[in-house]
Amino acid sequence: MASTEEEFSLKEVLIHFKSCLLDDDKDVLLEHYLNGWKGLVRFMNSLGSIFSFVSKDAVSKIQIMENYLKGESGERYRSLQSMIEYELSGNLVDLTQRSGHPDSGCRTLLRLHRALRWLQLFLEKLRISSEDSKTSTLCSEAYNDSLANYHPWIIRKTASVAFLALPVRNKFFEVMNVGTPEEVVDMLGEALPYVSKVYDFTEEQYSQHNLLNLP
Ligand code: 1PW
């Protein structure tokens, strides 16, 4: 697996989301989920410093999760299901307002999960876009249909300004470092179903445990 800057490719990032699916898609391995996110952060950073406000928050949330994974209860944070079970049974989640456990794994991962929906919608729009489509429009449509619903006005405003700085479609495809535009479209068609599976499974677990609105 490539890890140097030059070899960085969005394909490898998306492959992490494939490898985090466990047991016939019945659980999600958090280590790979976070590796996928680390790749997304590198991708966002390669789009320019204007995206650093976006990636900074993701970085701090990845860090919180990695600390749990490395901590003394690390084994309980191996997968999504084991984390939910561990935190809920130990009363380690603030359910109505942030107080004793302001940075629980469940609420932290929920923020990444919501952001993953944005990414999924955006990349799917790019996949089916025509050559003259505007990436900034695709990105803000995806954002407005997902993450924006959880953000206050000031963040929505900052995000919409940042989107305007996105490179045009072909340049954007180059930054992905996958190959020709046709190869990018093929890669997205192959990889996005895994991102969807991870997203859908996580959504289902959070819904079953009534955790979709954690403060
Ligand atoms: C072009 C590639 C697109 C990838 C998009 C994924 C990154 C999404 C990160 C958005 C962060 C915006 C600024 C931070 C906002 C936080 O307040 C918010 N975090 C998220 C991830 O929505 C909520 O976290 P909080 O304040 O409840 O701890």
Automatic annotation (TrEMBL):
Gene Ontology terms: biological process: negative regulation of interleukin-1 beta production
Domain Glycolipid transfer protein: 29-177
Domain of life assignment: Eukaryota
A Gene Ontology term for the protein's cellular component: cytosol
Keyword set includes Methyltransferase: no
Transmembrane spans: none
Membrane topology: Peripheral membrane protein
Principal place of residence: membrane
Places the protein is found: Cell membrane; Cytoplasm, Cytosol; Endosome membrane; Golgi apparatus, trans-Golgi network membrane
Matches recorded under InterPro entries: GLTP_sf (IPR036497), Glycolipid_transfer_prot_dom (IPR014830)
Single Gene Ontology MF annotation: ceramide 1-phosphate transfer activity
SUPFAM superfamilies from the UniProt entry: Glycolipid transfer protein, GLTP
Keywords annotated in UniProt: Cell membrane, Cytoplasm, Endosome, Golgi apparatus, Lipid transport, Lipid-binding, Membrane, Nucleus, Transport
Catalytic activity: N-(9Z-octadecenoyl)-sphing-4-enine-1-phosphate(in) = N-(9Z-octadecenoyl)-sphing-4-enine-1-phosphate(out); N-(hexadecanoyl)-sphing-4-enine-1-phosphate(in) = N-(hexadecanoyl)-sphing-4-enine-1-phosphate(out)
Keyword Glycoprotein attached: no
Biological function: Mediates the intracellular transfer of ceramide-1-phosphate (C1P) between organelle membranes and the cell membrane. Required for normal structure of the Golgi stacks. Can bind phosphoceramides with a variety of aliphatic chains, but has a preference for lipids with saturated C16:0 or monounsaturated C18:1 aliphatic chains, and is inefficient with phosphoceramides containing lignoceryl (C24:0). Plays a role in the regulation of the cellular levels of ceramide-1-phosphate, and thereby contributes to the regulation of phospholipase PLA2G4A activity and the release of arachidonic acid.
Family of the protein in this entry: Belongs to the GLTP family.
Name of this protein: Ceramide-1-phosphate transfer protein
Source species of the chain: Pelobates cultripes (Western spadefoot toad)
